[in-house]
Design brief:
CATH class of the largest domain: Alpha Beta
CATH superfamily of the largest domain: CoaB-like
Number of strands: 21
Shape: elongated
Radius of gyration: 25 Å
Distance between the termini: 36 Å
Largest sheet: 8 strands, mixed
Strand content: 15-25%
Helix content: 25-40%
């Protein structure tokens, strides 16, 4: 079953050159199992015709407020009944202004006023139009009214200029819509997590690190936000974009990561140690670059602090989740780690199944047993982890979160 199976989306398409992206968006939604009803404004039809959307969705396109295909003549009311959401992409400055002030002069603007489902808009316009005080005032009103704003992006525009106002790409809008519709399993919760590798310097240009990409940690941060949590992420040295609405703290070394974690720990409900923290670091760091002289080099290493273990044993510890990336004997090592560190949950995986890649295969270990998740993209795996985590928190029933 697709990500949108059983969901119906009303897709509004207005008059901007970005309307061509709406065609791709409708294709993605249908492919993911959604039923898509396209409402095309007169201006929108100047850019992409109704036949295109009908062919992509397999459903009739709605254009007129006076359309009599519904027996009661009330398309402006009935189209949104039972819909998961109304999404307008592209949303021009004109339609945003109408939505802000409740103007109803066509089918799309009227059904938005009569809807009983969420409304999302993906703005698309020239940068001066976007920056105009009138548009910005309208955006304030729409946010106040609970309308979800997707974008806009910054980049090249059809007018030849560069700046804010470019509509998000179809895949990005698809992802934003899917995230918006996720159950808010962690609503009101605060999550602190670590992600990526650490870098332990040997000298000013060299260091000890590992091949962790940080992708699993960043996916988990996104999944927690989707589930309604307030998320703080302490990230090692990775070049990944910060998920929307995540507070990111960048660090390099394990000592810096520990300091950032302990500083931000008070008040957190969950701590997730996803980062591949170095187990060892050089005992001394050379102030100058170590020159190659053809001879062997011996480094004296010392153990780094166990951040996760330290957090889990605190009297004010939140619910703690650890990760165990192993090359063999996953169940034995992961369960041993969970018990030794007294963790509520350990997410275990074999390094060959996910380290550095786009997909992952994990097994969840808690006090009641082992729960394998099917292999999938890391964001999908992350959502499965969050769902299991939320069930553990629910079992606490208001009591302090137990790390067994």
């Amino acid at each position: 079953m697709g990500a949108f199976a059983g969901k119906r989306i009303v897709l509004g398409v207005t008059g901007g050159i970005a309307a061509y992206k709406a065609a791709e968006l409708s294709r993605l939604l249908v492919k993911a199992g959604a039923t898509v009803d396209v409402v095309l404004t007169q201006a929108g039809s100047e850019f992409v015709g109704a036949m295109t959307f009908q062919s992509l969705t397999g459903r009739p396109v709605w254009q007129s407020l006076w359309d009599d295909r519904m027996s009661n003549g009330m398309a402006h009311i009935d189209l949104t009944r039972g819909a998961a959401a109304v999404l307008i992409a592209p949303a021009t400055a004109n339609v945003l202004a109408k939505l802000a002030y409740g103007v109803c002069d066509d089918l799309l603007s009227t059904l938005c006023l009569a809807r009983d489902c969420p409304l999302l808009v993906a703005p698309a316009m020239n940068r001066q139009m976007w920056e105009n005080p009138a548009t910005q005032r309208n955006m304030v009103l729409l946010r106040h009214d609970g309308v979800k704003i997707l974008g806009p992006a910054t980049g090249d525009q059809a007018c030849g200029e560069v700046g804010d106002g470019r509509m998000l790409e179809a895949e990005a809008i698809f992802d934003e819509l899917y995230a918006f519709l996720q159950p808010k399993l962690l609503a009101g919760k605060r999550v602190l997590l670590t992600a990526g590798p650490t870098f332990e310097p040997i000298d000013p240009v060299r260091g000890l690190t590992n091949s962790s990409s940080g992708k699993m940690g960043f996916a988990l941060a996104q999944a927690c936000v989707e589930a309604g949590a307030e998320v703080t992420m302490v990230a090692g040295p990775v070049m990944l974009p910060t998920p929307h609405n995540v507070m990111r703290i960048d660090v390099q070394t394990s000592a810096q990561m520990r300091e950032a974690v302990l500083k931000n720990l008070p008040g957190q409900d969950v701590f997730i140690g996803v980062a591949a923290v170095a187990d060892y670091r050089p005992k001394t760091v050379s102030a100058e670059k170590i020159k190659k002289n053809g001879k062997s080099l011996t480094l004296l290493l010392e153990a780094t602090d166990d951040i996760l273990g330290e957090v889990a044993t605190r009297l004010d510890a939140p619910l703690c989740v650890g990760f165990a990336a192993e090359s063999q004997h996953l169940e034995t090592y992961a369960e041993s780690k969970r018990k030794a560190k007294k963790l509520a949950l350990v997410v275990g995986n074999l390094v060959q199944d996910g380290l550095g890649g786009e997909t992952n295969r994990v097994t969840l270990f808690d006090a009641t047993g082992a729960y394998p998740l099917p292999p999938a993209k890391k964001i999908i795996v992350a959502r499965g982890i969050v769902a299991h985590l939320a069930s553990l928190m629910e079992k606490c029933d208001g009591k302090p979160y137990a790390n067994h």
